[in-house]
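Q: Hi! First time doing this. I have a protein sequence and I read that you can turn it into a structure. Is that right? Here it is:
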Amino acid sequence: MQHVEFRNEENLSTQQQKKEENTRLSPKNEYLRRTGGNQRKEKKRPRAADAVARNTMPPGSQKFSRQEKVLRSDEYRAIYRQGKKFFGRFVNAFCLGRAQTCRLGITVTRAVGNAAERNKIKRRIREIFRKNKHLFEGCETIVIHVKPGCILADYALLAQDIENLMGKIKKFRMGASENA
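A: Yes, that's right. Below is the predicted 3D structure, encoded as structure tokens:
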């Protein structure tokens, strides 16, 4: 059996430890100790002039700016109702009227896949639009609707399908302008 040593009262010192002065902070400064200091930082609100400067893009820029996006649901509904529909292998395109700048909207339903897969497809389409703006020049407002089989397509196939759709749209516009 092992010998276990217990602390007896005879081993304790008889002198009391000194108390620290001001161990407790006043209630108004107590949060400083809890949070590790004053970490609250004032948020700077952007000025209106800065917002205007951020939204203006130099010509030929490859950024996908806010002016180039279809944002509101009523715009999507109008494009679906009144626009011309073009069919591709992986995506369908809805086009409506001429605009000052080509605007793009992307719709991906849950039938395509989970959220990560849907976001991946949207990133790919935005990248194709951003890198191939020359295909969309003189174009109108376009909504790209993704078909469920699109998740199986790699970037190159998706890019080729969108290029083919843009060719169909341009041929349709050229025919419509000749008939007018």
